[in-house]
Amino acid sequence: MKKLLVTGGAGFIGSNFVRHVLDNTDQHVTVLDKLTYAGNETSLGGLPDERFRFVQGDIVDAAIVEKLVSDTDAVVHYAAESHNDNSLQDPWPFLETNIIGTYTLLEAARKHNKRFHHISTDEVYGDLELDDPERFTDLTPYNPSSPYSSTKASSDLLVRAWVRSFGLQATISNCSNNYGPYQHVEKFIPRQISNVIDGIRPKLYGSGENVRDWIHANDHSSAVLTILEHGRIGETYLIGADGEKNNKDVVELILTMMGEPADGYDHVVDRPGHDLRYAIDSTKLRRELGWTAKFADFESGLASTIEWYRNNEAWWRPQKAATEAKYLALGR
Ligand code: NAD
Ligand code: DAU
What we know:
By secondary structure, this protein is α/β, with parallel strands linked by helices. The protein is about 45% helix and about 15% strand. α4 (about 90-110) packs parallel to α5 (about 145-165) and α6 runs parallel beside α8 (about 245-255).
């Protein structure tokens, strides 16, 4: 493969993948991104002009999608509405982008017979009890909880159907919670880091016992490239780095690392339908494709993420006030 089309490449994880591909391969990358409130072209600053191109556009727009898909070797599909809290306020953009957008891309990939990799989430599997010894695998039944996760589950099922019915050359990956630089301040870790920088007490939903399985975005990117290059067509690979932590521990760690008292946070009203625990078993990816996580030390990844938000206030500052105003209206 020489040319990649990356949808959603101006978002948190998509931009990380674009940098990873340009740094580690000789491939050419075109990004298709609508630049919603979550997209930021400056996350793609400084990339080599001769191998990188940015196109602003909507994955629901069949004309632009077909033109770009016809001119690529493979599509890596990151574009999505990605935030659970937003999906509880207004589900429609999630249906439009995550379902119709994925359909539009699949049809173009089918027509032009292109390799397709679909980026998805562990949230399609619902949640686990805190003491459940089992973790999610690609055989776990789908059981999504929120409008966001149900649209991601829908998009996964579309990809599976296009593989089986039309022979599309596709793979799927379902990853756990990512953290790292360039993540929007609406999300848990950057929200709390930027709150501490602003002298605002971090906000913990409910009791804070909810567990997320953290992985550094750099490890997600290396896993996706591995699957794109070596994954078996039609297969689903779960991506995770054995990073389970409850939210309370993460908030306390952020406060301590930033020189504040560990108990300097507030409990706020819980998210409706809040999933209790996610946990990924990534044995298939590790055994079959030989992938390993290189950034699995959460404390050092968190320290460098805190450092990045301290040093890159110009990147996140424009979103901060509007994001907090939205949360305030929800009592969170
Ligand atoms: P993000 O919200 O930071 O970025 C999404 C990007 O998609 C933005 O640049 C946005 O402008 C773009 N976009 C949205 N609608 C579009 C449309 N209609 N057409 C073109 N571009 C559009 O999201 P993220 O956290 O980087 O997540 C990227 C993907 O990874 C999503 O598919 C998400 O479901 C998946 N994922 C995320 C995580 C995580 O922890 N963040 C974990 C597993 C999977
Ligand atoms: O598991 C993968 C998913 O991880 C991705 O598919 C989603 O796109 C991504 O947004 C993320 O979903 P979560 O809902 O888990 O992430 P979020 O950052 O919104 O919240 C993480 C946890 O922190 C969750 O239990 C809710 C809690 N939380 C969140 C915020 C914003 C708080 O306690 N306080 C907060 O202020």
